[in-house]
UniProtKB/TrEMBL annotation:
Domain ZP: 599-706
InterPro entries listed in its UniProt record: Ig-like_ZP (IPR058876), ZP-N (IPR055356), ZP_dom (IPR001507)
Record has Cell membrane as a keyword: no
Official protein name in the record: Zona pellucida protein AX 4
Keywords recorded for this protein, A-Z: Signal
Annotated PANTHER family: EGG ENVELOPE GLYCOPROTEIN-LIKE PRECURSOR, SI:DKEY-19B23.11-RELATED
Annotated signal sequence range: 1-21
Recorded superkingdom: Eukaryota
Length: 706
């Protein structure tokens, strides 16, 4: 296209040098000749948020305001989603130089306002060579005006009888052109073009065409055709020249239906036959329907590929554009901590029809449509399987432009990277055939971040605060989820106790929740160390734990000791680590044969069973005593004695060194005279046994500090 870019600059404050086209950032201002209008676009990044245009012609400069644009054939809008402002100027717009309805020359000022308030004016000149030949009648339904142009020699025009009558009645008064607007039920009142212009209507005559333009105004007729809203303006021009009354009966009609959102996409409909355009004639035949977006028609294969549809029935044409289809603009953002989105499409529509006389009418229509604000609801699915003992939480319905960046698990913050590094698995799951995806979070119940509550039942709970961001703007929002898992009747580990000849064995089968408890012996936790130190024999594999506690090792208590037997008992328990609350315990008491014993109870009572004849052959157990000779054995048999006495009695000696308190006593035996005749009791004694016992033996500990 022989069309260039002439851009100059002059700054109202005057000092800036002029800028040539090549000095402007790429795409800053662009022009394009479309079928029926010139398109001027300017990037908002360049032009700021409030650019405006003025049309320039030999008469001067004409600011394109909202009102002025709708009367003069200019449509200006700022399209934030697309980041640009655009001006569509009809080839018949007021200040366009028109050569033979074929070459159109435009001149505009683009005025931008910098943040500082300084205004800069750019000159935008463009020339368009008509890309598509005119049809005899052309109707353009712009967003802000209706325009009709007709070849001035079209013969097949008609008028209603009313109009003819009115035209004849008024024609005597004037030989210049007059116009009447026909409205149902209202009298036709003639007015001059300048009177009509004051009402916003523009008529003009080009080389070969008559042009009429009207804003959508309350004065136009709103009608409904087969469920569609149609706006109609019906001017009748007339003039008397000598004996002839010339009359031009015009009509412009546009379907002004709004687009609707039906849950799947945007739908727009229009009557198949826009009957006002028939103007009383019976025949009107539609021969071609096309659609497109952004002011350009598209070929059928492209619209089909994008999923657009154009359904034509006898009464209505219905166009639908699926949500987020190519050609439209979708925007997502956060509001009230929720993902919102909407979708906008600028529909362009063409319909060509023939009337009775075979005169072709081409109708073009711009229709911006948008969905309401849509909220994307996320879904949480609790996929936890109790048996696996892992929280599995599915967060779904996330759009492709949403990323999960962090999670807070019971108040602990993790970025996705941190979480993954520390073994908390977060997996992104695409959903096939959709632009949605999901995340699955897996967290074992044992994880430190999981809250546990152990009562009769065990509750695990986790509050998740997901941090999501919308890309690319990285706008965050949050989503909360809570999961719990409960196990009923979970009991602490249970031990079985078995009595052996010289030990007690305990056995515990491992169960899933054993880790919730610790195994204790007295105040101590059972560990491999403790077992080794005290001589317990511990075996622990994946199935069970066994502990063999040899008789007389630390932790036993003894009861009912006599020369034949005694009870030794050992207690093991499970308790909660934090509270040390004992949840189950087993004190196993076994009957053992008494051979040699030296034990000390927690109350400080020492019990000794020993064979005195091993030290002094022939010694009589009956004749034994302790350091305090009044302390005699409680029980004896042929060889053994059983003493039982308090630590602080029977002459027990106490020795203290840095680490131990040692108690000491002796078992002494009386010697009897061997003489048969004169049995004389002597008090010669021999110490057979020296008993020493430390505090440890006695089952209590004393802290010394010397
Ligand atoms: C643009 O057009 C106007 C009017 O047609 C003309 O006066 C002016 O010189 C042109 N400017 C440039 C830069 O071509
Ligand atoms: C609605 O469509 C039918 C054709 O199905 C047509 O006969 C009828 O005139 C239309 N209604 C209007 C108000 O145009
Ligand atoms: C977690 O994040 C929140 C909000 O970003 C912050 O207030 C809190 O201090 C963070 N906690 C930790 C442990 O980092
Ligand atoms: C979730 O996390 C965000 C950011 O850390 C915080 O602003 C919000 O209050 C949290 N929500 C709850 C319920 O804790
Ligand atoms: C989640 O799933 C677990 C296991 O199926 C179930 O016990 C729990 O009640 C579910 N609901 C919530 C809110 O965690
Ligand atoms: C026994 O082994 C299990 C693992 O098989 C372990 O969790 C447990 O702590 C061990 N118990 C003791 C007392 O060492
Ligand atoms: C020990 O003395 C008791 C009486 O004090 C007597 O009954 C018992 O037979 C004596 N036993 C021996 C072995 O001398």
């Amino acid at each position: 296209m022989a069309f260039g870019c002439w851009v100059g600059v002059f700054v109202l404050l005057s000092v800036w040098p002029s800028v040539r086209c090549s000095d402007l950032p790429g795409g800053a201002i662009e022009t394009a000749c479309r079928d029926r209008y010139l398109l001027v676009t300017t990037q908002l990044s360049f032009a700021g948020n409030q650019p405006r245009f003025e049309a320039v012609d030999t008469d001067g400069v004409h600011p394109i305001t909202k009102q002025y644009g709708s009367e003069c054939g200019y449509m200006f809008s700022i399209l934030l989603l697309r980041g640009h402002a655009e001006l569509r100027a009809s080839y018949f717009s007021c200040h366009t130089d028109n050569q033979d309805d074929e070459v159109f020359t435009f001149s505009f000022n683009l005025i931008t306002t910098a943040a500082s308030g300084v205004e800069t004016t750019y000159i935008v000149n463009a020339t368009c060579f008509l890309p598509l030949p005119w049809s005899p009648r052309e109707v353009s339904c712009e967003e802000n005006y209706m325009e009709v142009s007709m070849r001035s020699d079209v013969s097949c025009l008609s008028g209603t009888t009313d109009a003819w009558t009115a035209a004849l009645a008024h024609s005597s008064a004037t030989s210049t052109w007059q116009v009447m607007f026909q409205q149902e039920g209202q009298q036709l009142i003639p007015m001059s073009f300048s009177e009509a212009r004051e009402l916003g209507y523009v008529f003009h005559l080009t080389q070969g065409r008559l042009v009429f333009r009207s804003p959508y105004t309350p004065r136009s007729v709103m009608g409904s055709i087969n469920g569609s809203v149609v706006e109609v303006v019906h001017p009748i021009l007339f003039s008397r020249q000598r004996w002839v009354v010339m009359m031009v009966d015009w009509i412009v009609a546009c379907s002004t239906n709004e687009g609707m959102y039906d849950g799947a996409g945007l739908v727009w409909q229009t009557p198949t036959l826009l009957s006002p355009l028939v103007s009383g004639l019976s025949g009107l035949e539609s021969i071609k329907f096309s659609m497109g977006v952004d002011g350009e028609l598209l070929d059928e294969p492209i619209t089909a590929e994008r999923g657009y549809s154009l359904d034509i029935s006898d009464t209505t044409v219905q166009i639908s554009v699926p949500f987020n289809a190519a050609g439209g603009y979708r925007k997502s953002f956060v509001m009230d901590n929720m993902y919102h989105e909407f979708y906008v499409v600028h529909l362009y529509y063409e319909q060509i029809f023939l009337d009775d006389c075979g005169v072709e009418t081409r109708l073009r229509l711009h229709r911006p449509m948008n969905t309401p604000l849509l909220i994307q609801h996320l879904s949480i699915i609790n996929q936890t399987v109790l048996e696996d003992r892992v929280f599995t939480v599915y967060l779904g319905n996330l759009y492709y432009d949403v990323d999960l960046v962090a999670v807070t698990l019971n108040g602990h913050n993790f970025t996705i990277l941190d979480a993954t590094k520390s073994g908390r698995v977060i997996t992104m799951v695409p959903r096939p055939n959709s632009n949605l995806h999901a995340y699955i979070l897996r967290l074992p119940f044992e994880d430190a971040a999981v809250h546990k509550l152990v009562k009769r039942n065990i509750y695990f709970s986790m509050d998740i605060n997901y941090t999501l961001v919308i890309l690319p703007q990285e706008e965050p929002y949050y989503y909360l989820a809570s999961v719990v898992a409960q196990f009923n009747d979970v009991f602490p580990p249970v031990f079985k106790g078995i009595c052996n000849e010289k030990s007690i064995s305990f056995q515990m089968d491992h169960k899933p929740f054993d880790y919730l408890w610790e195994v204790g012996v007295g105040p101590y936790i059972l560990t491999t160390n403790l077992a080794a130190k005290r001589g317990y024999i511990m075996q622990n594999d994946s199935k069970s734990l066994t502990l063999e506690v040899p008789l007389f090792s630390v932790g036993y208590t003894y009861k009912d000791i006599n020369l034949k037997q005694f009870y030794g008992s050992f207690e093991i328990h499970s308790r909660l680590p934090k509270t040390l609350e004992v949840k189950s315990s087993l004190a196993k008491a076994c009957l053992f044969q008494t051979t040699e014993v030296i034990v000390c109870s927690t109350e400080g009572v020492v019990t000794v069973v020993t064979d005195v004849t091993l030290a002094i052959p022939g010694a009589e157990p009956n004749g034994t005593f302790l350091l305090d000779s009044t302390c005699r054995p409680q029980e004896t048999d042929d060889t053994r004695v059983l003493f039982s006495f308090g630590l602080h009695s029977c002459g027990t000696r106490v020795q203290v060194d840095h680490q131990h308190v040692t108690y000491e006593n002796e078992i002494n035996v009386e010697h009897k005279s061997q003489s048969v005749n004169a049995p004389v009791k002597t008090r010669d004694t021999a110490s057979v046994y020296s008993l020493t016992f430390t505090t440890g033996t006695c089952g209590f500990n004393v802290q010394f500090s010397f």
